[in-house]
Amino acid sequence: MKKDFDMIVIGAGSAGFSAAITAANEGARVALIGHGTIGGTCVNVGCVPSKAMIRAMETLHITHVADRFDGIEATAKITDWKAIIAQKQALVDDLRVAKYVDVLPSYNNISYIEGAASFDENGGLTVDGAALEAPKIIIATGARQHVPDILGLDGVDYLDSTSVLQLDALPASLVIMGGGYIGVEIAQIFARAGSAVTIVTRRGILPEAEPVISAALTEYFQAEGITILKGLTYNSVEKTDGGITLQVTSDGKPLAITGEHLLLATGRAPNTELLNLGNAGIEGDSRGGIKVDAKMRSSRIGVYAAGDVTGQDQFVYMAAYGAKLAAQNAMNGDSLSYGNTAMPAVVFSDPQVASVGLTEATAKAQGIDTVTSVLHLEHVPRALAARDTRGLIKLVADKATKKLLGAHIIAPEGADSIQTAVMAIKAGMTYEDLGATIFPYLTTVEGLKLAAQTFDKDVSKLSCCAG
What we know:
The protein is an alpha/beta fold.
């Protein structure tokens, strides 16, 4: 095994590739260590397969709401579930090759090594037991499904976000434990496909979002027939004649919830169990992730970490961003700092949930005196033309300076609208600046302008495009 490397990158997902390519572009000789399927979470089992299935089921749902328009009647049905799954997997396989496997030959100074990396008792790095050395190391091993400690769970065949999208047959019913973005997206996929879906959660769906947005999405999900049970205490899990039964306590009373399958969507756990971080003196957090500072440095000199293994901002684009920063710091002297003030976040539900910056609660927790505006989509011409006014936009600003602090959207096209708010916050704009900006008419993103004007004006009294 070669030992003349300038950098070792552990993990061959989006973060690992970002770090390796960044270092290679600066002339470094890089060893990229992959363990398992190349490409990591996003392309293999996360973003790509879930969004492909969301789009597929969206075609079914459109026919159910076609009667929003007079004179239209439409129908659609699933004729071959296996074909849907196969097409989704073909896309995954194609993108894995195009974006990962076929990329490696373009970089002669990246050596891809397959194996399990670990720090030995002397703190040295090994791959499948063979020593490998470099002055700089970046750990980007990602994360996996977190499995909660619930009595009986280890005795049932539960699903995770990977296996649920590989089922050969559409389940008659599905119980989803967890109301975060993974649980929300998968719930809507299977509900629209025809499964009876129940979400069970301690704090409701999207508990970190603005409460008004979580409440709105809950209402829309219930209108689609999705059952949402919150405020629960999980007691035990068992296999029964009806499938898998989850025993919970709700409002002080026992409750049994049964589904053909049980899906765990209870968060992510960092992949550090094989690394033996203690041997290297690398400090971890309470969940087993790697603690890093703003420069992406771990507690061991020369060792950096990025992406989901750090437990922060678990989005593929933030993993790639953090890994690029780590590689640049490792090569050039730790001059760059990680920043997430203008980080967009999207949940691909329908309507989509998108946000950037502070919520009202987080701003107040920082001691900021805030002012907010809330604009419902019934005031957005695009939504009226589409005959779909589900959703709202909430903006958060500093009361004293009028500077925008956060934007939160729930709208059918919310994901494509949030980047405008990202740029506004990054540029330090006030809500007056945003409200005075020219927007194209009959777009969802125009709602940001209207929401900004709502701080000081009654938009119901404005004509089209009026400022």
